[in-house]
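Entry type: protein chain
Record version: 2
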Amino acid sequence: MKRPSQTKRLTRYSVVRHRIVVASLMLGMLVLTGQAFKIQILDSTRLQAEGAARQLRNIVVKPARGRILDRNGDVLAVSTPLDAIWAHPATLFQAREDWPRLAEALDFSPNRLANILERAKGREFVYLRRHLPPAEASRIESLAIPGVSSQREYGRYYPAGPIASHVLGFTDVDDRGQEGIEKAFDSHLSGVDGQKRVLRDNKGRIVEDIESIRAVHHGRDLQISLDLRIQGSTQKHLADAVGEARALGASAVMLDVATGEVLAMANVPDYNPNNRSSSGMEVLRNKSVTDVFEPGSTIKPFTLAMALASGHFSTETPIPTGPGVYRIGKHQISDIKDYGVLSFSGVLIKSSNVGTAKIALELAPEELYRTLSAVGFGQVSGVELPGEVDGSLVKRERWRPIEHATLSYGYGLASTQVQLARAYSVLASGGILRPVTLRQRSASVPGQRVLSRATVQQINLLLEKVVSAEGTAKKAAVPAYRVAGKTGTVHKVSSSGGYEENRYQSIFVGFAPVSKPRFVLAVMVDEPQGKYFGGEVAAPVFARIMSDALRFNGIKPDANTASGITIVAHPVESEAGA
């Protein structure tokens, strides 16, 4: 039995303990009440905003890039819907157990996925895969892995594949133009991003579109001057020529005489813009505008046009070219044979270097420089393609006789393929220089007169004879049509600045039909093996492409209007032309 004193102490202890417990409970309740008050009243606005921020996101809405169409409305480039798989790294780090199946779905190794996420630590967004077909992206998203979602984007597709690849160019993974028309007209084609607010679930998936913040503006279509039919023909015949001649490559440019529009621009080797994985930088370059060469004898019509315009020569002026060589100081100019005395006309028809040099040396070198500059050499053409160079036409303080002489037949200047085609469009148009364009034009443009009509008419009659049985380019003839043009065969320039002994470029440039010129075409075959003269290698390619272009456009034959000139359809040459 407890003594009264013990009972009294126990009672006091129980009371104290009870009071402590009650005080603790009351203090806890007071703290909880205060915290609840802070959360519900004082911090409610901030916390609600933070909660919403974890669920609401502003996301970019990508525009579809505008289509590129040829002059007839055929689609050359179009953007197709694709999806990107992206992740919120912080959320995905909390779901490491899902990484193996995510890596498998992405066709990644586990290490690759881990490395991507490690590098993205602290970021809100990281791409895992781009440009996936929507069905594949949907399959990955259906795994319901926290922090992983898809986003709509667009990828470029080129229905014609390699055809026109150098003109069209391509886009990067973000659908921005990188080469060709895609780059030159990027602002026209690309459109403007939109933005919208969306609601995401706790796994980062979009569950609801809340509102449009900024409307997306899709890119505008662009109709260009190319004719896909002629472009395809050009590409095919160039490829055939490269194969037949075992050449390094080839290029060609066709222009509309009246408008300066580019109807075809092709290079071989080409590439497929839909799959560039095996294409080196060299093959991606549009050599028709970026690479230069010495145009050789194709310059002679302009030298002779200058001479006729001077009034010192007529088409019948005799020019002695024997014995087929001409010495200027320690230098020697030669023809492929001794032509003896040629008429002024014969100098062009037979492509005599000796005759051309003698004619040029009768006039001031500045006159030749002005003539070549007037028809566009040494200047960009206006075609608006990235990387276009202006070539080289040097204006010298003092001209040495040998420099003057070699310039007269196309050595000592450098031209692009498009510049050469443009210069011949001056002849085809009766002396009018027009800018070259890839924009479609519905009517002729005025241009600038740079050669007299009378002089050009005389030169064109001679160029028509170049393509006759008596000229150097019989294989450029197109049955039933009158064709005018000029061959060129040049030694390639070596890296040391001289000329390669056994490496050539074969050239033909001309126009048809002569009675009313419609198309100008320049063809160059680079390093043909075996036969290498322009009349043997480049001229037949010209004939095939030009024949197709005339047929595609329903141009009426005009051979019956020729003045005593017989056009021969691809006979066997007994002698090579220059």
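Comment: The longest strand covers residues 499-512.
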